[in-house]
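Q: What does the assembled structure look like for these inputs?
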Amino acid sequence: MSCDQRKAELLALIASSPSPARAQHRARTLVAAAGALGIAIGLFLALGGVRLGGELTGDLALARPVPLILATSIGAAVLAVAALWGLVHRGGSMLGRPRGWLLVFSLLVVSSLLAWKLLASSVFPDMTLAWPTRPGLRCIGVSLLLGIWPLAALSLARARGDAVHPRSTGAALGVAAGACTWLLVDLWCPVAHPTHLLLGHVLPIAVLALAGAWIGSRWIALARS
Amino acid sequence: MERYAAGQDAAFGDLYDALGPRLLGFLRRQVHDDGLAEDLVQQTFLQIHRARGQFIRGAEVVPWAFAIARNQICDTARRRRAESSVAIRDGNAEAIDRRPSTEPSADEVLHAREVASRLEDEMSRLPASQRIAFELIKQEGLSLAQAAAVLGITVTAVKLRAHRAYVALRAALGDLENEGVSK
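A:
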């Protein structure tokens, strides 16, 4: 087959299977992102929205001071934006950021979220106490419930587009989705005990990262020929 | 690619003209089967077509296209392994025999064929990781950073693989080099 014949055949193939151009893809991504954000915020509000505190034991209740809520949520928001930049933005290359970058940045984001929450809470008295009734299981559920939507939107934006390391990309998207979810869960959950944070807030990010890696191998990887 | 990503379908022809021959050469050297290489070029362009909406403004196209092509090779090799069919590099000698020759003189042709054949043989003996790194840099002219991005490894690892390939080829083809010097 000559070069021209091959080209003609390919042009015919492409004409028969149109693909979205950049503007269409961007519009679709924006709709998906707005939808995911709307669903996550809707669920967050349905679960009670911002909660100052609760019953620590039968006769003792604790409430978070507003400055603490502001400090932890602003810090979490900054780190969520950093996660979106470092883990979702591809750094100007169609091949994305290197796998090592994604791994290191993911670990940095998660450890910074945890460290900031603990540091800010430790400044205020009793804010890092253990809550016997709140080991973190509800927070796992809430984090996953809120986190799957941004992960789905981010995965849709990257569908069938990663030629080098789709699993790592998917895992990084999972961490970014988890970092964004951390902000909402932080507003919802008044507990800042280290064990609770590890179980209820950090573990779901790891689960989202694993889910992202799985999605990456199936959905973000290039389609099999 | 910029025009094509922006929605100008007619720009695909230009993209094909610019990238197609390079990809075909690369894929031919990897799979040693003209028909398969042509299929893989088509698959590579189809993937580019499907992902055009995700193309980043100002991004480099060549490393991306090579990464997709490499992906197609791995995919094909995996499929062939799964089917327990003939290895991807079978038909090496036939592929070499089909190559056109300018034939300036019988001796030169003989020598060139011997060198090409030896080079192909030695290249085929290299581990795939070293061979691809070597070809991307030495034959396709990609920078170390571009080759590293295509292969999804660090620049140091690419350097190491290409250097190992170079050392292995040099050791294997040293006698030919000596012959050339003596001639």
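Chain B has two domains: 1-99, 104-183.
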